[in-house]
Design goal:
The protein has helices at about 10-15, 20-30, 65-80, 115-125, 145-150, 160-165, 180-190, 200-220; strands at about 35-40, 55-60, 85-90, 100-105, 125-135, 170-175, 225-235. The chain is α/β, with parallel strands linked by helices. It has one domain (about 10-235): Rossmann fold, CATH 3.40.50.
């Protein structure tokens, strides 16, 4: 990952998936408190969904200077309510003296080739009892030209994601989410075969598929889904 520019063009499209962002942010908000590090914050489109009195500071870490400028403009426009610091770089560029209560990867880990090493660095940046939270695309058999085009090295399942987690802690949650979205992804994978979703497709998924997913995910106890959510705690 020597190129500092983000290769994908999908961030602006998925920025409109507000039902989806509300869904997964509610699922993990209770895991985020104290000093939080958001790795690969991109445009900052997700950060506002984590507004909580339990968060004392929030650091948005982003390696692409162009995205950082857009994120800064967004935060000024939206009058961001809690202490939010924006830094250019990666976990490799952070001082080993830094410590966080939670480190968050939202659709980021799949972009990092050395993902195991990344999570080990994250563990070293955590206080005891701190948490790593990962939301990532699920199932390698769903990997398409779209994944490749936006810089995904892989997709994950429960086995592959749990195998990455550092040894100095424990997994406290590992679930699939968006069961209905999985069916739509299968349709695209085997029928439509489109390399990139349109805004119209994303809005349809967000408005009509995400709401029933929230119900069905509970009904199926998060057994299936097109995304995977993992939470790890440092012991």
């Amino acid at each position: 990952m020597t190129d500092l520019s983000y290769v994908g063009q999908e961030l602006e499209i998925f920025e409109h998936a507000r039902n989806w962002k509300r869904y997964w942010s509610r699922e993990i908000r209770s895991c985020l408190s104290g000093d939080v590090l958001e790795v690969g914050a991109g445009l900052g489109a997700n950060t506002g969904f984590f507004r909580s009195t339990g968060v004392s500071s929030w650091t948005c870490l982003e390696r692409d200077p162009g995205l950082v400028e857009k994120m800064r403009s967004r935060f000024v426009k939206e009058h961001f309510p809690f202490d939010c610091r924006i830094e250019i770089g990666t976990t490799e560029s952070l001082s080993i003296q830094r410590r966080f209560d939670a480190i968050l990867y939202v659709d980021v880990l799949e972009h990092i080739e050395a993902d195991r090493e990344e999570l080990r660095r994250a563990s070293r940046l955590l206080v005891k009892g701190g948490r790593i939270v990962v939301l990532a695309p699920a199932h390698q058999w769903l990997y398409t030209a779209f994944d490749s085009a936006i810089g995904h090295f892989r997709r994950y399942n429960k086995s592959s994601l749990s195998a990455l987690m550092p040894s100095d802690g424990e997994i406290i949650r590992l679930d699939y989410i968006d069961s209905v979205g999985l069916i739509a992804s299968l349709g695209n994978r085997f029928l439509l075969r489109k390399a990139e979703p349109s805004l119209k497709q994303v809005l349809f998924w967000d408005r009509f598929l995400v709401p029933p997913s929230r119900f069905i995910d509970r009904l199926t106890v998060n057994w299936i889904g097109k995304s995977i959510l993992g939470v790890w705690r440092k012991t």
